[in-house]
């Protein structure tokens, strides 16, 4: 058989084989076997040395033609297969946009967090920083720098979870404030901050005690800060959380870290101050402790008490939430019962 006939057969056989191909992988195999380096066409082209000078260009150009035809047929087949595959995919993966969506259940911030958020917004609006820090603390920041030396009897007031002699679960968020005072450059202006967070006490849980609860402490230090600034600030808090008709009353008290120290009451929300069982007929409800920062606390943080002074307060969002919503057992906030928690959902 002449080389030309051989090439003709190759072309016909190749085109016939191509018709039977139905997937990309088989098509690629056929392309390699026909047109690849080890394929029959390459072999024919290699054998052309044996041909005469007249035959060589004729067979050569025919071989090229066969190769081009096969290549074109393969390309066409590939295009057809690709198009079929895409059509199949589009059909199979079709999305019915008219199907109803799956309902998602949306969570909401915990009721205590909602109160903290509200307080953060209020104080951020007055130019305070919100600073948070570790719940596992050093004795030094939690007690020592708050004017509670090792032998201080007030340490008994706060039964503490100790990790080691020097490391403990913070009993208040003041350690964050001690750090802030230490760091603050007072030549750049006043320090105004609140520190919200979880604190721990070695209490036995009951309706009014939890070994874990929340605190939001506030601290302002500058020149010429007075107790009137403290009272005005606490009035803003009362108005924000409870409403404008609520008043604030300060009563003398004692904390080791403030001097003088006060306890702040607000108008009883239950009887509008007339006197009822909630306020034990006083017309007032105790909501927080506060005072003017003790000079020792300032000194220990490297602040000169002859130049600077300020107020501090500590309030309990748990107690606020109990008062605001009439919750009579603090443990509800920590039991994670969604039937309780969903009552404070802001979903419409
Ligand atoms: C309360 C009352 C209070 C403070 C916390 C404080 C922080 C610094 C300096 C001085 Cl850095 N004081 N915090 C002051 C007064 C009261 O908390 O009833 N705590 C359970």
TrEMBL record:
GO terms for biological process: phenylalanyl-tRNA aminoacylation. It comes from the Bacteria. One of its GO terms (cellular component) is cytoplasm. It catalyses: tRNA(Phe) + L-phenylalanine + ATP = L-phenylalanyl-tRNA(Phe) + AMP + diphosphate + H(+). GO terms for molecular function: ATP binding; catalytic activity, acting on a protein; magnesium ion binding; phenylalanine-tRNA ligase activity; transferase activity; tRNA binding. The keyword Chloroplast does not apply. It holds the Pfam family Phe_tRNA-synt_N. Its cofactor is Mg(2+). It is found in: Cytoplasm. Its EC number is 6.1.1.20. Residues 111-323 form the Aminoacyl-transfer RNA synthetases class-II family profile domain. Binds 2 magnesium ions per tetramer. HAMAP family: Phe_tRNA_synth_alpha1. This is Phenylalanine--tRNA ligase alpha subunit. It comes from Secundilactobacillus oryzae JCM 18671. The gene is pheS.
């Amino acid at each position: 058989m002449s080389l030309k006939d051989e090439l003709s057969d190759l072309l016909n056989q190749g085109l016939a084989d191509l018709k039977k191909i139905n997937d990309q992988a088989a098509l690629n195999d056929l392309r390699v076997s026909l047109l690849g380096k080890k394929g029959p066409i390459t072999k024919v082209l290699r054998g052309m040395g044996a041909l005469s000078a007249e035959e060589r260009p004729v067979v050569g150009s025919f071989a090229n033609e066969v190769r081009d035809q096969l290549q074109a047929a393969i390309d066409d087949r590939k295009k057809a297969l690709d198009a079929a595959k895409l059509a199949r995919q589009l059909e199979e993966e079709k999305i019915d946009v008219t199907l109803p969506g799956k309902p998602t259940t949306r969570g909401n911030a915990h009721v205590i967090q909602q109160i903290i958020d509200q307080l953060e917004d209020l104080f951020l609006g007055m130019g305070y920083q919100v600073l948070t820090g570790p719940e596992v603390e050093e004795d030094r920041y939690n007690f020592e720098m708050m004017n509670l030396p090792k032998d201080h009897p007030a340490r008994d007031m706060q039964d503490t979870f100790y990790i080691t002699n020097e490391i403990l679960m913070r009993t208040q968020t003041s350690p964050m404030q001690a750090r802030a005072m230490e760091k603050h450059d007072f030549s750049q202006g006043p320090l105004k901050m609140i520190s919200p967070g979880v604190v721990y006490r070695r209490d036995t849980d009951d309706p009014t005690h939890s070994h874990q609860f929340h605190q939001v402490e506030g601290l302002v230090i500058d020149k010429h800060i007075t107790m009137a600034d403290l009272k005005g600030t606490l009035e803003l808090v009362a108005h924000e959380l409870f409403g404008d008709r609520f008043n604030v009353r300060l009563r003398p008290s004692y904390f080791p870290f403030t001097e003088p120290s006060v306890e702040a009451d607000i108008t009883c929300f239950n009887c509008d101050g007339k006197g009822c069982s909630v306020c034990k007929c006083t017309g007032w409800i105790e909501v927080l402790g506060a005072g003017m920062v003790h000079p020792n606390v300032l000194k220990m943080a490297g602040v000169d008490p002859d130049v600077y002074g300020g107020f501090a307060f500590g309030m309990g969002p748990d107690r606020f939430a109990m008062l605001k919503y009439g919750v009579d057992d603090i443990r509800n906030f920590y039991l994670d019962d969604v039937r309780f928690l969903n009552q404070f959902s802001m979903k419409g």
